[in-house]
């Protein structure tokens, strides 16, 4: 039995859940696909810099949005191009200067919950999840904002907690269910 949910307004997230039997167990597997195009809005980055950030974001989104809990498993494929205008409602991922954000310390945002524009503060581009003395990283913010673009809000745990409250990089089973219902 399979059901497919296609994002109705071109947000370019699809989530498909398939149920199959493994012996007596009923296994539910969800496949998520996320696509976007990344652009430099700081005016300071080379195309190689942006490609490197896109590669890091793809890897983290695939890692953060893959997991298992009991008889549920989920995997994600992320494809982030660079150097093009976003097309067909594809997610627009902007690497922004700090001055873009309305308040100091904002690491990233989306145009709206479930929206298709993701902004990431370039001030964290050099921070990886293994950096010391900080929960903030490009990887966590990039994946967190993808969660917002997929319709998730704060307060549901893990990756969707704000960075000052958590350094978790993972989303959970109920959030996967929400993504399937939202997209
Ligand atoms: Zn947030």
Give the topology, please.
Layout: E1 2-6, E2 13-22, E3 25-40, H1 47-64, E4 67-69, E5 72-82, E6 91-96, E7 108-110, E8 117-121, H2 138-149, H3 173-182
Parallel strand pairs: 3-5, 3-6, 6-8
Antiparallel strand pairs: 1-2, 2-3, 4-5, 7-8
The protein binds zinc ion.
The site of zinc ion (ZN) has 4 residues, from helix 2.
CATH class reads: Alpha Beta
Percentage of β-strand residues: 25-35%
How much helical structure, as a percent, in the residues? 10-25%
Q: Provide the number of structural domains.
A: 1
CATH architecture classification name:
3-Layer(aba) Sandwich
Summarize the structure.
This protein is α/β, with parallel strands linked by helices. It is built from 3 helices and 8 strands, in the order βββαβββββαα.
Describe the structure.
There is one protein chain. The protein is an alpha/beta fold and 183 residues long. It has a single domain, classed as Collagenase (Catalytic Domain) (3-Layer(aba) Sandwich), CATH 3.40.390. It has 3 helices and 8 strands, in the order βββαβββββαα. Strands 1, 2, 3, 4, 5, 6, 7 and 8 form an 8-stranded mixed sheet that branches. Helix 1 packs across helix 2. The longest helix is centred in the N-terminal third of the chain and has 18 residues, at 47-64.
Which keywords apply here?
183 residues; alpha/beta; Collagenase (Catalytic Domain); 8 strands; 22% helix; 32% strand; binds zinc ion
């Amino acid at each position: 039995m399979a059901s497919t949910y296609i994002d109705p307004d071109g947000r370019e997230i699809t989530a498909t859940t398939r149920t199959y039997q493994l012996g007596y167990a009923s296994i539910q597997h969800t496949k998520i696909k996320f696509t976007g195009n990344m652009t430099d809005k700081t005016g300071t980055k080379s195309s190689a810099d942006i490609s490197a950030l896109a590669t890091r974001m793809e890897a983290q989104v695939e890692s953060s949005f893959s997991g298992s809990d009991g008889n549920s498993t989920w995997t994600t494929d992320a494809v982030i191009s660079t150097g093009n205008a976003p097309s067909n409602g594809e997610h627009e991922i902007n690497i922004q200067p700090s001055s873009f954000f309305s308040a100091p310390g904002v690491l990233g945002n989306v145009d709206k919950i479930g929206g298709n524009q993701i902004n990431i503060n370039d001030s964290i581009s050099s921070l990886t999840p293994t950096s010391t003395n900080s929960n903030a990283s490009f990887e966590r913010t990039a994946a967190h904002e993808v969660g917002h673009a997929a319709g998730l809000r704060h307060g549901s745990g893990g990756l969707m907690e704000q960075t000052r409250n958590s350094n978790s990089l993972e989303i959970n089973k109920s959030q996967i269910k929400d993504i399937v219902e939202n997209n």
